[in-house]
């Protein structure tokens, strides 16, 4: 299927998947708990029980046992693709938006300066002290309820970004997710967007918007980041806008650092200290859960991305910068 992106785009991503996604969000979205996480838990318990009850058979009849395991995995793999993962093979987003895929350092710097100006302005509107970090005055569930506001605005220009019904929940596996280094994930079998409920509330708007983008069929992490940032930026709430602008800014700063570290530090000095403190808050949270297994999880996820049509793996996350720079080339921030 990866060799036929136009077919996937037309018949799956903008065809069959639209109905699959909406159906599952209608079925599971109204429930307060994550059905997908409950199913995963039951599956793990069943697997352990099955292994215990079949331990003698595993030794005596290894071939048939392997056939049973292979059959089960093949069904799960088929369901994974039919319910969501064929979206990995759709056309690149830059083609459907008709924007360029490359950009110069000069354009990157110019766009970053625009982002800094906008971020500083909104930060100043939220607090009179430029050295204070921003704390969102919302609960986690309130943030989830506000996610669709930004998508409602985007829908006027891009009808396929209509986000209704919603199905965003905190994950029952938030502690394991934190140690694995993940802010959230989409359950492909129930189409529930899962957000790690331990992350700083500052990250909730962009993480929730990112997972909603996955629900809408944008499987590639860079594209979900881009659409998630747009949804947060276009939200009517200023705290969402602040989260969206500073989210995009962080990626641009990282890219500038890779290209010119001296210029990076010059630009960094123009950013309100409160914004830097929000970045530090997220970094400190991540460091607090740093563990020897995290690099293994990152390597595994990197391999997963490469196996699913993202050849650069986790490095593909930087592609969001190209999308942002080119999308806002002739638009007002």
Low-confidence stretches: none
Share of β-strand residues: under 5%
The radius of gyration is: 21 Å
**Number of discrete helical segments:** 15
Helix content: 55-70%
Main β-sheet, spatial strand arrangement: 1-3-2
Q: Structural class, from secondary structure content?
A: mainly alpha
Shape: globular
Whole-Å distance between the termini?
37 Å
Give the rounded overall mean pLDDT. Answer: 91
Please trace the helix and strand order, writing H or E for each element.
HHHHHHHEHEEHHHHHHH
Strand count = 3
Q: What would you note in describing this structure?
A:
The structure is a single chain. The protein is mainly α. It has one domain. 65% of the residues lie in helices and 3% in strands. A three-stranded mixed β-sheet has the order 1-3-2, sandwiched between helices. α7 packs across α9. It is globular and about 70 Å long. The mean pLDDT is 91.
Compose a concise summary of this entry.
The protein is mainly alpha-helical and 333 residues long.
Provide tags for this entry.
15 helices; single chain; 3 strands; 65% helix; 333 residues; mainly alpha; three-stranded mixed beta sheet
Topology of this structure?
Blueprint: H1 5-28, H2 35-53, H3 55-60, H4 62-83, H5 93-96, H6 105-126, H7 140-157, E1 168-170, H8 174-180, E2 184-187, E3 192-195, H9 204-215, H10 221-233, H11 238-259, H12 261-268, H13 273-288, H14 294-307, H15 319-327
């Amino acid at each position: 299927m990866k060799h036929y992106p136009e077919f996937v785009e037309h018949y799956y991503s903008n065809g069959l998947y639209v109905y699959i996604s909406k159906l599952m969000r209608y079925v599971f979205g109204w429930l307060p708990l994550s059905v997908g996480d409950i199913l995963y838990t039951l599956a793990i318990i069943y697997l352990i029980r099955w292994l215990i009850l079949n331990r003698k058979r595993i030794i005596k009849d290894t071939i048939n046992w392997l056939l049973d395991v292979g059959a089960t995995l093949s069904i799960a793999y088929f369901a994974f693709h039919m319910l969501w993962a064929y979206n990995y093979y759709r056309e690149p987003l830059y083609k459907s938006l008709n924007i360029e895929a490359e950009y110069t350092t000069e354009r990157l710097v110019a766009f970053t300066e625009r982002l800094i100006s906008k971020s500083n302005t909104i930060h100043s509107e939220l607090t009179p002290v430029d050295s204070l970090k921003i704390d969102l005055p919302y609960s986690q569930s309130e943030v989830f309820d506000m996610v669709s506001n930004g998508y409602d605005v985007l829908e006027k220009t891009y009808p396929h970004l209509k986000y209704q019904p919603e199905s965003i929940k905190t994950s029952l596996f938030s502690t394991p997710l934190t140690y694995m280094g993940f802010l959230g994930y989409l359950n492909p079998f129930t189409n529930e967007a899962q957000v790690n409920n331990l992350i700083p509330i500052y990250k909730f708007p962009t993480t929730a918007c990112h997972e909603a983008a996955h629900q809408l069929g944008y499987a590639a992490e860079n594209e979900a980041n881009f659409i998630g940032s747009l949804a947060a930026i276009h939200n009517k709430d200023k705290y969402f806008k602040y989260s969206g602008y500073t989210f995009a800014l962080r990626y641009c700063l990282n890219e500038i650092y890779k290209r010119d570290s001296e210029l990076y530090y010059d630009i960094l000095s123009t950013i309100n200290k409160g914004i830097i403190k929000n970045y530090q808050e997220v970094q400190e949270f991540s460091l607090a859960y740093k563990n020897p297994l995290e690099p293994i999880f990152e390597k595994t996820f990197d391999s997963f991305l490469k196996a699913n049509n993202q050849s650069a793996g986790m490095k593909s996350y930087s592609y969001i910068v190209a999308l942002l720079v080119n999308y806002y080339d002739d638009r007002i921030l």
